[in-house]
Amino acid sequence: MLAIGAAVLFAIAFLINAADMSTNDVFTSTNVMLIGLALLALHVAGIGNGWAGRRRR
User: Which residues cross the membrane (predicted)?
Assistant: First the structure.
């Protein structure tokens, strides 16, 4: 789920950069890309993978 969020943020950052949109200082394409990289790092670390299935015997 975090990887999907990262992909969406990368797409938004690309659109902001490609359209050369002027945004405020917080919502720049670099900041959005860095948030996407943080989500991707959390996904690779194994956080947000969903429920860990417990087995019953």
Answer: 34-52
